[in-house]
Amino acid sequence: MTNHLNLIVDEIVNETHDTISILLHEKDNRDLSFLPGQFLTFIFDADGIETRRGYSIWTTPDDLPQVGVAIKKFKDGVTTKYLLESLKVGDSITSLPPLGNFTVETNQENERTLVMFGAGSGITPLMSHLQAILKYEPKSKVILFYGNHDEDSIIFYDKLNSLQKKYSDNFFIEHCLSKPKRNWNGVHGRIDSVKSIELLDKYKTHFTGQVEYYLCGPEEMMQTVMNILKERNVDRKNIHREIYTTKVLDETDEIEEKEREVTIILQGERHKVLVMPNETILEKALEQGLEIPNSCQFGNCSTCKAKLLSGKLKLVEQTALSEEDIKQGFCLTCVGYPASDNVVILYEDMF
């Protein structure tokens, strides 16, 4: 397709035992413009089946024409395993243009505080955010609470230390390790509710101007922090988060687990698909060979945005749609589970 990018690998760095960062450039000098916090969607052919995976950008627009992403190995992650074990300098990767709403825009006149909660590979988009803020907003502050297993699992450890030294008056880091090695002087334990309260209270004297919160990591951690911020009456519009995976509906969700027929209207034609329990509408549509527009597949980019014409849909962990979008009947089929019979979905270019 014409909007696909052809990225060439320039450099590969082993950040930890299970995470690499890579730098790439666009072979044909096509536009790679992005906002800090966006991601690239790599497209692979796995045994004849197209597979897409989103990887957050850790560099800033200043680094163009190069762009960097980080890739962490996950259990049963075939695509990431290939990238970690087989990728080499000079290889090409097909990608969609940068996407995503988990972004920051900078203004040198801003005087604000960005409080970031990250864990594991969740540091990746936060890295892009904080570098941009520190460089272009000299009156703003960044406070990062970053959780990991131990010292050796801290992604971008050297880069973060260098930034802290360079911007010592504006950048503060607390590394929180669940199983640190001996002689660790930092925070012990996961970022749970107790740790979140302690950290926020410890650094509240550094808060200046408007305070905004950026969260990226395991869903449990983000929900814990969300609950704490809600208790402190933080305005929801000042809380931003990135989600990497969708969760399977569990027994607490009031949805009858049964196969449901869903009608998809695409380019004026009606298609009926049978969606199994714990299967998204997008998954089934792609399995049936429908060319549904999609990219991230975890509710963050709105590429699969459609309109619900009838029936009920359960949306799980999406960040791309506003409350107004949802009120108007829009949905994301990559995180959409049919919750009733007679579900009809309409895809239109105008959306």
Automatic annotation (TrEMBL):
The keyword Flavoprotein applies. Residues 2-105 form the FAD-binding FR-type domain. GO terms for molecular function: 2 iron, 2 sulfur cluster binding; flavin adenine dinucleotide binding; metal ion binding; oxidoreductase activity. Its cofactor is FAD. InterPro entries: 2Fe-2S_ferredoxin-like_sf, 2Fe-2S_ferredoxin-type, 2Fe2S_fd_BS, Beta-grasp_dom_sf, Cbr1-like_FAD-bd_dom, FAD-bd_FR_type, Flavoprot_Pyr_Nucl_cyt_Rdtase, FNR_nucleotide-bd. The keyword Iron-sulfur applies. Residues 260-350 form the 2Fe-2S ferredoxin-type domain. Keywords: 2Fe-2S, FAD, Flavoprotein, Iron, Iron-sulfur, Metal-binding, Oxidoreductase. Coiled coil: none annotated. This is Flavodoxin reductase (Ferredoxin-nadph reductase) family 1.
